[in-house]
Amino acid sequence: MHLDRRARQIVGRGPVGKAIVMGILERHGEVRVKVVKTRRKKQVQAEVRQHVEPGSTIYTDALKSCEGLNEYVHDFVDHTEAYVKGNCHTNGMENFWSLFKRAIEGTYVSVEPYHLQAYADEQAFRFNNRDCDDVDRFRAMVSGMAGKRITYAELTGKTEGETATEAF
What is the mean pLDDT of residues 72-81? Predict the structure, then answer.
């Protein structure tokens, strides 16, 4: 993005003008990602409670929204001080974010916020099947497509009342 355009579009700090993607990774397991509207405690904790079994140990960074998850054994690492604190680290999730950002910036270049969840799902699929070879990953992808259909309106985000104009 050119500096003049960046100055017009990105104002403030943090998530202002940015889409927010939340991720949960089971150690040595699968990642789940979701585009969320806010980093506020209510939404972040609802996602954790939906995907993590009570009584589990969770490791997070120092995000304040994760405070108060009392039904879990919760430890956090403050990245201003250290990246690893004994067994507490977020390195696996940081690895996923690195791959995700590399795909966005290198392969897709620009992603509309409306389609961000689809790109996040694709990268989660790739990450979760990272131990497979290309043939097995392709078979898993094709088997997941059976019986599913996406319409042009769903793909482009058109609502029922809108009419699509096509230009060839």
Answer: 92
- Domain assignment present for 165: no
Residue 40 to residue 68: CA distance in whole angstroms: 13
For the chain, what is the domain count?
1
- The residue behind tokens 């699509």 is 164
Confidence check: pLDDT of 74 > 60: yes
Pair of tokens at residue 51? 């995907």
Q: Supply angle C-alpha 28, 96, 64, rounded to 5.
A: 95
pTM of the model: 0.75
On the CB side of 71, CA atoms within 13 Å amount to: 8
Mean pLDDT of the chain: 86
48 class by beta-carbon count within 10 Å (0-12 exposed, 13-18 middle, 19+ buried): buried
Geometric angle at alpha carbon 94, from 48 and 57, rounded to 5°: 40
At residue 106, does pLDDT exceed 90? no
pLDDT, tens digit, 9 for 90 and up, residues 87-104: 999 999 999 999 999 999
In the block, tokens 């290198």 appear at: 106
Candidates 3, 23, 2; CA nearest to 121 is: 23
CATH number of the CATH domain containing 87:
3.30.420
58: which 2 tokens?
A: 């969770």
